[in-house]
Design a protein that fits this description.
Number of helices of chain A: 7
Order of helices and strands of chain A: EEEHEEEHHHEHEHEEH
Number of strands of chain A: 10
Number of domains of chain A: 2
CATH architecture of the largest domain in chain B: Orthogonal Bundle
Number of helices of chain B: 11
CATH class of the largest domain in chain B: Mainly Alpha
Strand order of the largest sheet of chain A: 6-7-8-3-9-10
CATH topology of the largest domain in chain B: MetI-like fold
Helix content of chain A: 25-40%
Number of strands of chain B: 0
Order of helices and strands of chain B: HHHHHHHHHHH
Structural class of chain B: mainly alpha
Strand content of chain B: under 5%
Radius of gyration of chain B: 26 Å
Largest interface: A-B, 27 and 25 residues
Largest sheet of chain B: none
Oligomer: heterodimer
Distance between the termini of chain B: 40 Å
Number of domains of chain B: 2
Strand content of chain A: 15-25%
Radius of gyration of chain A: 19 Å
Helix content of chain B: over 70%
CATH class of the largest domain in chain A: Alpha Beta
Structural class of chain A: alpha/beta
Chain lengths: 267, 281
């Protein structure tokens, strides 16, 4: 577990062809507590993936900084692991090999076969150790992605729309299992999604972001009791209330975003 | 409800029905049968048109029976045994050299932006060059031995290997590179564990195509200025109006070339199981 402090973070991209800079994230302040599950929702173009990349250490901030347990983030490190929307599994490696990949990329890390087997059991992949990604369903592939992220025992788990490509039923199953896995392994989680329902079902807090440049509009506490997988969270009266609140915030943004896109198109 | 019926839920996967397997085998046999039928029919039409009806003068365009007879004759007189090992040795030398140089250079050019800029256009220009045109010059460079032949086989097989390897390195999935970087991989680790394995199927495709172009290079090289090999046989036979002998020689070359392609193709399929089926998953 670890604490994440994001202080006055601004991230920019150079647009070479237009001689402009695109401000992807503007003055973000966010503190994520030890063992907290924070979900970020926002319209397309709100810089969600940029923020994940910045925490992972793949992009450098233009201003501000990110601290993980008081240590500034400079480059990727074993204290943080990422689960990708597009799975990003090596197609020539089996489940076992793909999980090992997360270890092999880190020079100083050794992991025993027992530990790999434990992670495989934890994410429910027993019996699929020798399967190749193309032999697995989307849900199973993302289990491999999750196991690969967990194997290095990161303090922070970053999840970039991990269930976006799954069908609705698999998605709900995976959400429930993720809650259980996080409860069992105690990790700080920063999770990105487009789905309001998913944000409420999973998060301790929901960060609602605005589009272009990405800023934090509001942070909402999710006061629904855990474990939420053990009751039908969507029929909880608090769920509807939260859903409406997040949706109201997002709808304004979505409208602004649509107008912006229209103006961009006309320009 | 009968006792135990509820525990008799059908398993998710059952062995395929015998009738389905029979139908599939029948379909495969039919396909093979059609191909054989096609070839037999074509040969028959050819035989009747030239051999029986003499629509064309057989001395210019011999019927299959004459080519078959010439083949048997060349085989029994030991002419093939004299010439073919020489050709195959030249092919193997040039091809292996091309594979080694092509894979190495392809990996280097594909991996480095600077090398790609510098040598990429050179590689494509070499590929565009009709290497047949430098056959006379190779005699000046290497003389009349096996060297010019080996050189032409090398040149003809090099570019398919090199260019395919190069694009294999370049088309590596960026999501996989991002994953490797997130997990702390450096440039060298990413190259060995992500870039190289994802280029392997492309390398094998290049090696397969190089068999064909290599054999074409071989034949062309031996046609001119060589007294031995496939090309020499074709040249000598043609100059004596033994078109059936030339055709018999060409048929043997094509058979060997196609066999080589099949062999590399099997290797390709074996190595890249994950790739051929990933599209359907």
């Amino acid at each position: 577990m670890a604490r994440i402090d994001i202080e006055r973070l601004t991230v920019e991209y150079e647009l070479a062809e237009r001689r402009q800079r695109l401000v992807a994230l503007w003055n973000i302040d966010l503190r994520i507590a030890d063992g907290e599950f924070v979900v970020m929702v926002g319209p397309s173009g709100c810089g969600k993936t940029t923020l994940i990349n910045a925490i992972a250490g793949l992009v450098a901030p233009a201003e501000g900084r990110i601290l993980v347990d008081d240590r500034p983030v400079g480059a990727p490190g074993p204290d943080r692991a990422l689960v990708f929307q597009e799975y990003a599994l090596l197609p020539w490696r089996t489940t076992w090999g793909n999980i090992r990949f997360g270890v092999e990329m880190q020079r100083d890390l050794t992991v025993s076969d027992d530990e790999i087997q434990q992670v495989i059991d934890l994410v429910g992949l027993r019996g699929f150790e020798r399967s190749y990604p193309h032999e697995l369903s989307g849900g199973m592939r993302q289990r491999v992605g999750l196991a690969r992220a967990l194997i290095a025992r990161p303090k922070v788990l970053l999840m970039d729309e991990p269930f976006a490509a799954l069908d609705a039923m698999t998605r709900e199953v995976m959400q429930g299992e993720l809650e259980g896995i996080i409860a069992a392994t105690r990790r700080t989680v920063f999770f990105i999604t487009h789905s309001i329902d998913e944000a409420i079902a999973l998060g301790d807090r929901i960060v609602v972001a605005t589009a272009r440049p990405g800023r934090i509009k509001e942070i909402i506490e999710v006061d629904l009791p855990r474990p939420r997988r053990e009751y039908d969270v969507k029929s909880h009266p608090g769920f509807a209330r939260l859903r409406e609140r997040v949706w109201t915030l997002l709808r304004d943004e979505a409208v602004v975003h649509a107008h912006q896109a229209h103006a961009d198109g006309a320009a | 409800m009968a006792v135990g019926e509820e525990i008799l839920a059908p398993p998710a996967r059952l062995p395929a029905r015998a009738s389905t397997l029979r139908a599939r085998r029948r379909r495969t046999l039919t396909q093979v049968g059609v191909v054989i039928g096609e070839v037999v029919l074509a040969l028959l039409v050819w035989e009747i048109a030239v051999g029986s009806l003499r629509l064309v003068e057989p001395i210019f365009f011999p019927p299959p029976s004459a080519i078959g007879a010439a083949f048997a004759d060349l085989l029994s007189r030991g002419v093939f045994a004299d010439h073919i090992p020489y050709s195959l040795r030249n092919f193997a030398t040039g091809y292996v050299l091309a594979a080694v140089v092509g894979i190495t250079a392809g990996l280097a050019i594909g991996s480095s932006y600077a090398l790609g800029r510098l040598l990429g256009p050179v590689a494509w220009s070499l590929y565009a060059m009709p290497w047949i045109s430098i056959r006379p010059a190779t005699t000046i460079w290497f003389g009349f031995g096996a060297e010019p032949i080996i050189f032409l086989v090398f040149l003809a097989s090099l570019l398919p290997v090199l260019l395919n390897t190069m694009s294999g390195v370049r088309t590596v999935d960026p999501a996989l590179l991002r994953a490797g970087r997130v997990f702390g991989g450096g440039r060298v680790q990413l190259w060995w564990k992500v870039v190289l394995p994802s280029a392997v199927p492309f390398v094998l495709t290049g090696l397969r195509l190089a068999v064909i172009s290599g054999f074409i290079g071989l034949l062309v090289a031996e046609l001119v200025g060589s007294s031995r090999g496939f090309g020499a046989l074709v040249a000598i036979a043609s100059s004596r109006f033994r078109v059936e002998e030339a055709f018999a020689t060409i048929a043997l070359l094509v058979a060997i070339s196609v066999t080589g392609v099949r062999a590399v193709g099997l290797l390709e399929r074996h190595v890249s199981v994950w790739r051929t089926r990933s599209s359907s998953a």
